[in-house]
C-alpha cells in the first residue's frame, strides 16, 4: 500500500468513528434529557402529594385557580406553605380562610409602586420670545 492510500483509509476510518461518536453523544444527550424530565416530573408529583396532605380541598381548589392566572404567585405560596410545614409551623390542614389571609399578607408585602415621570422636551422650532 502506498502512503496516499493508507492516508485515505485512515481518514475514512476517522470519519466513521466520528459519526459513531456523534450518534452516541446524541443518544446520551437524549437519555440525559429524559432523565432530567423524569426527575422533574417526580419532584412535581411529590410536591403535589405533600400539598394535598397539607391543604384542604377548598384551599387546593383556590390555589389551582390562582395558578391558572398567576403561576409564579401560586408557586411562591406553595413554597411558603411547604416550608412552614417542614419547619413544623403548620399542625393542621390549611383551610381556605387561612390561605386567603396568607395571600393577603403576601400581596401587602409585594405591592409594586409605580412612578410616572414626565419629561418635556423643548422643540428646536419653538420660540420663547
TrEMBL record:
InterPro entries, alphabetized: PDCD5-like, PDCD5-like_sf
Gene Ontology cellular-component annotations: cytosol; nucleus
GO molecular function: DNA binding
Biased composition (Basic and acidic residues): 31-46
Annotated stretches, region: Disordered: 14-46
Top-level taxonomic group: Eukaryota
Gene3D superfamilies per record: PDCD5-like (1.10.8.140)
Similarity section: Belongs to the PDCD5 family.
Name of the featured protein: DNA-binding protein DDB_G0278111-like
Organism the protein comes from: Citrus sinensis
Amino acid at each position: 500500500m502506498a502512503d496516499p492510500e493508507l492516508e485515505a483509509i485512515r481518514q475514512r476510518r476517522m470519519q466513521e468513528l466520528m459519526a459513531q461518536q456523534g450518534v452516541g453523544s446524541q443518544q446520551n444527550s437524549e437519555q440525559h434529557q429524559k432523565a432530567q424530565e423524569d426527575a422533574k416530573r417526580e419532584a412535581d408529583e411529590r410536591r403535589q402529594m405533600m400539598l394535598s396532605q397539607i391543604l384542604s380541598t377548598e384551599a387546593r381548589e383556590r390555589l389551582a385557580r390562582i395558578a391558572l392566572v398567576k403561576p409564579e404567585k401560586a408557586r411562591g405560596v406553595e413554597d411558603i406553605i411547604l416550608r412552614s410545614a417542614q419547619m413544623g409551623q403548620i399542625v393542621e390542614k390549611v383551610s381556605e380562610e387561612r390561605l386567603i389571609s396568607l395571600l393577603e399578607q403576601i400581596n401587602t408585602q409585594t405591592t409594586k409602586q409605580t412612578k410616572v415621570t414626565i419629561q418635556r422636551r423643548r422643540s428646536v422650532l419653538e420660540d420663547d420670545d
